[in-house]
Specification:
Trna Endonuclease, Chain: A, domain 1, single chain
């Protein structure tokens, strides 16, 4: 049995558990066993990328290195995403123009992602294009008061397959997270060297003693600290790191925190990555109640005052929980 046949069996078994109708299963089967329905092309303003996916054991197409590539990198490292495919089969959209004239078109989304709890068709769009799309195609797109762009016809077509449809645009935090994940890519490899237990315990003890200590300060205290060990612990979520406002993964601005803070109720993978790579979060956020990363212990496993209500005030928490 080929590797693709093995993947197909696993994918279909999972989709049946999700309760997908036969129409949806047939769609998934066709996507898994076929090449992308179209090849992406470079045009003015975009640069195409071919991403070598370890998760999928294949090359994934990205029509833009600033939008689609960010989405792909997030799916690559997100454990909730089990499989993802670029340029899946087109779906038929039926809608009416404002003058009442019916329109039927075939629409190819950018990605099909099969997640632990759902199957999603995703169209990636730059957020700055939302107003123009809603203005030029009023029967197709709807710009919500919240600023989100929807396509009701595509949502209906996806629902017939048992899927969810969404239009996605990367936030500033998403882009920095993707950059940091690329930086840590080698530390996620299955054959990456393990961190010696005594080294791990020493680093965790130092971080627990001084939450928010920088990597540079840690190296000054413990001359034997190997920077590769620190990055490996970050990648394996055995320690956490908060980035400075520059968002760059540089030794002087990276702050470490214990990974025990991951039990705050936000989407597990998104929160762990945020803790590890801390997207544009100032160090003052270490005392934010909604993050659970304050200096006082709490029932959530992080910090913060347990007597105070936990509010969703952190923009990174809101954005990454829906990636």
């Amino acid at each position: 049995m080929s590797s693709k046949d093995g993947m197909l069996d696993l994918v279909l078994e999972h989709c049946r558990k999700l309760g997908l109708p036969e129409k949806g299963l047939a769609y998934v089967r066709e996507v898994v066993t076929s090449p992308p329905s179209r090849n992406v092309q470079s045009r003015r303003g975009n640069v195409t990328v071919r991403f070598a996916s370890r998760k999928m054991r294949m090359t994934i197409q990205c029509e833009s290195h600033t939008i689609e590539l960010v989405f792909v990198i997030l799916q690559e490292y997100r454990t909730r995403t089990l499989w993802y495919f670029d340029q899946p089969l087109a779906v038929k959209l039926n809608y009416k123009r404002p003058d009442g004239q019916p329109v039927t078109i075939l629409h190819t989304t950018d990605y099909l992602t099969i997640q632990a709890d759902r199957v999603v068709l995703t169209e990636c769009k730059p957020r700055e294009d939302y107003d123009e799309l809603a203005h030029k195609h009023p029967g197709r797109y709807v710009l919500e008061p919240s600023g989100e762009l929807r396509c009701p016809a595509a949502e209906a077509a996806a629902a017939e397959l048992g899927f969810v449809y969404r239009i996605w645009s990367p936030s500033e935090e998403d882009q920095i997270l993707a950059t940091n994940l690329k930086f840590l890519a080698d530390y996620y490899r299955e054959d990456a060297p393990a961190v010696p237990e005594e080294v791990s315990q020493s680093i965790r003890a130092a971080v627990a003693k001084d939450q928010g200590t920088s990597i540079a300060a840690l190296k000054a205290i413990q001359e034997a600290v190997n920077i590769d060990h620190v990055y490996a612990m970050v990648a394996r979520v055995r320690g956490g790191v908060k980035m400075g406002q520059t968002g760059r993964f540089e030794i002087p601005v990276a702050y470490l925190i214990p990974s025990a803070c991951k039990g705050t109720g936000v989407d597990c993978v998104g929160l762990v990555f945020c803790i590890c790579l801390a997207l544009l979060i100032p160090r003052s956020c270490l005392s934010c109640d909604s993050c659970g990363l304050g200096s006082r212990p709490s029932r959530h496993g992080g910090g913060g005052d347990p007597a105070r209500p936990r509010q969703s005030c952190c923009r990174w928490q809101r954005s990454t929980a829906t990636v």
